[in-house]
């Protein structure tokens, strides 16, 4: 599974932050993050999301130092033993909870020295908020399956896709790491690339009509 183009809502233009602050290329209206193009549709409201950017497995420490020079990290480094992964978090100006995650032994590039933004591989995770059973049904229709976690317990998370590139299914109100901010449903559009090319659209506003 590859996140080819992700479109999210935002209350302000974030291209300067991701371009000037983080040093990611800007191509028209899209932020180029490795294999992923990220677009923000500016609209009224306070939309926010959780998403993770994939870092080479052997470059996490360097990536954290790179991030510390540009943003304020949220809390400590997280070590997810069940995924053999480490992660660090920060906010962007819209309040999105952005994660840098590296899976040990995964997508390693063998580089040394200072980290550069062009080493980010692309999107690794994106949170989808809503009825988890319905979300899973829709994703199964386009060929994706649950590979970890679950969706039957009140606070369980369902992970759809594959290791390193996954959609996180959660109920509204469950707190996101590391801040505990309750998850909210907001519009999402995803174009998936590669052999599993497909499109997924989540529009909570339309569902309420």
Q: Name the overall outline.
A: globular
Q: Please give the domain count.
A: 1
Order of the strands making up the biggest sheet = 6-7-8-5-9-12-11-10
Q: Helical segment tally?
A: 4
Beta fraction of the residues?
35-45%
Low-confidence stretches: none
Rounded to an integer in angstroms, the radius of gyration calculated over CA atoms is: 16 Å
* Helix/strand class: mainly beta
CATH superfamily: 2,3-Dihydroxybiphenyl 1,2-Dioxygenase, domain 1
Tell me the total number of β-strands: 16
The percent range for helix content is 10-25%
Order of SSEs: EHEEEEHEEEEHEEEEEEEH
Mean pLDDT: 96
Q: Could you please say which CATH topology applies here?
A: 2,3-Dihydroxybiphenyl 1,2-Dioxygenase, domain 1
Span between termini: 32 Å
| CATH architecture tag | Roll
Could you describe the largest sheet, including whether it forms a barrel?
A: 8 strands, mixed
The CATH class name reads Alpha Beta
Supply the key terms.
209 residues; mainly beta; 2,3-Dihydroxybiphenyl 1,2-Dioxygenase, domain 1; eight-stranded mixed β-sheet; 4 helices; 39% strand
Structure description:
15% of the residues lie in helices and 39% in strands. It has 209 residues and is mainly beta. The protein has one domain: 2,3-Dihydroxybiphenyl 1,2-Dioxygenase, domain 1 (Roll), CATH 3.10.180.10. The protein has an eight-stranded mixed beta sheet with strand order 6-7-8-5-9-12-11-10. A six-stranded mixed beta sheet has the order 2-3-4-1-15-16, covered by helices on one side. Strands 13-14 form a two-stranded antiparallel ribbon. A hairpin with a 4-residue loop joins strand 15 and strand 16. The two termini are 32 Å apart. The relative contact order is 0.20.
